[in-house]
């Protein structure tokens, strides 16, 4: 009985051991393109579930007090999605007149363009 009580208390650790054991016995279930579709479930569903679960653990008072700081949230969003990509773009323009390899700059520009597209899509 003591072992069963301990297993109930340590349910997460038992679950990890069972998951590792199952993966060892049948690894084809978790590969890309397999039945679990980890390229989708891990990238989107698992991350969304973690953030949703974290949000549920917030107290209502903490959430409402955080919502009051609307200007701060707006500043952070503008800085992250507009100022920082614009600063990187300017930095890359400055680097483009130097002798740096142009393919390095093109890789960074592709990354910057993706972030700018996300920003404009949000507006």
From TrEMBL:
The chain crosses the membrane at residues 12-29, 41-58, 70-92. Pfam families: SBF_like. It comes from the Eukaryota. Keywords: Membrane, Transmembrane, Transmembrane helix. Belongs to the bile acid:sodium symporter (BASS) (TC 2.A.28) family. This is Solute carrier family 10 (sodium/bile acid cotransporter family), member 7. It comes from Mus musculus (Mouse). The gene is Slc10a7.
